[in-house]
Design goal:
CATH topology of the largest domain: hpI Integrase, Chain A
Shape: elongated
Radius of gyration: 25 Å
Number of helices: 15
Strand order of the largest sheet: 1-2-3
Number of strands: 6
CATH class of the largest domain: Mainly Alpha
Low-confidence stretches: none
Helix content: 40-55%
Mean pLDDT: 85
Order of helices and strands: EEEHHHHHHHHHEEEHHHHHH
Structural class: mainly alpha
Oligomer: single chain
Strand content: 5-15%
Length: about 300
């Protein structure tokens, strides 16, 4: 058994368990972290020798999840980023310790938003559930003890006047056009930059490819206000330039809280308030399930209430 430092700076722990040599390493460990891993591996070795069930670590579960499950996700790259942020909290910790790890994460990141903190909690909970239900690593329902924080809805629904003001505040015509295009189509930011050919616009309909999150969306009828804009795609503007323009427009209009994705929410809100059925909104936005569209259902009630209030 030993702890050694590799030439590139990472630490490696080597321990003999049940006649088998087990090695663990990470570039994120300090020497103290590596010694803690060694200590826990030795405990595991003693448990095996005594006939006790091996205590799996969170890191083992994370590694298996990243290998077997994450590559199948559409947002795999972003998910790996969230997973990497778990590493400082889980070094040498067993799955049974997950609720305590979750408590430590919440305390350490208390100044962050609930949504940011919950990214870690969701991964931790999923690892525990897989360990119990799919991998048979534990008989305990550990995941049920990881309670996520209450999140405040972040969606902002803009009026036509607000969208127009954001567009007018941009100094680049391309930025103005893309703001209007996003609000009138609900196309996602990444999808918007993947539109690379004018042949994707035919007869007032935008034909999207069947990759990424919009895999269910094949064709999107265009509002007359953005048909001309669609024909000029792709725009001669970089993502960095658009971000600069967007940030400046939000500051100039007093809408700094608005995110680009809120233009997509705005498109949905306009459709719902215009009386478009939720199923059709789902099709237009390319949602994979009705549950995703259901978040806009309350706008139907508000719209109808406003209509009733106009009665004499």
């Amino acid at each position: 058994m030993s702890v050694k430092r590799r030439p590139e700076g990472s630490y490696e722990v080597t321990v003999g368990i049940g006649g088998t040599t087990v090695r663990r390493s990470s570039r994120h460990w300090s020497f103290a972290d590596a010694k803690e891993v060694e200590r826990r591996l030795l405990i595991e070795a003693r448990d095996l020798a005594a006939g006790r069930k091996r205590q799996r670590t969170i890191a083992e579960a994370l590694e298996r999840w990243l290998t077997e499950h994450v590559p199948k996700l559409k947002a795999a790259r972003k998910t790996r980023g969230h997973a990497a942020q778990l590493l400082p909290f889980i070094t040498g910790r067993t799955l049974a310790e997950s609720p305590q790890v979750w408590a430590e994460i919440k305390a350490e990141l208390a100044e962050k938003s609930p949504a940011t903190i919950n990214h870690k909690g969701r991964i931790l909970r999923q690892l525990c559930n897989l360990a119990q239900r799919e991998w048979a690593w534990t008989d305990e329902s550990i995941g049920s003890r990881i309670k996520l924080l209450r999140e405040t809805p972040r969606e902002s629904f803009l009026t036509l006047a607000q969208v127009n003001s954001l567009a007018k505040a941009c100094t680049m015509r391309e930025a103005r056009d893309l703001i209007l295009f996003a609000a009138y189509t609900g196309v996602r930011y990444g999808q918007m930059f993947s539109i690379v050919g004018r042949d994707q616009v035919r007869g007032g309909v935008l034909h999207l490819d069947r990759t990424g999150k919009t895999a269910r969306l094949q064709a999107l009828p265009l509002h007359q206000r953005v048909q001309g804009i669609a024909k000029r795609l792709p725009m001669p503007i970089t993502e960095k330039q658009l971000r600069v323009q967007w940030t400046g427009a939000r500051a100039a209009t007093g809408l700094s809280h608005v995110r680009w994705h809120d233009l997509r929410h705005t498109c949905a809100s306009w459709l719902v308030q215009a009386g478009v059925p939720l199923y059709e909104v789902m099709q237009l936005l390319g949602h994979s399930t009705m549950a995703m569209t259901q978040r806009y259902a309350h706008l139907q009630t508000k719209h109808l209430r406003a209509a009733v209030d106009k009665l004499a």
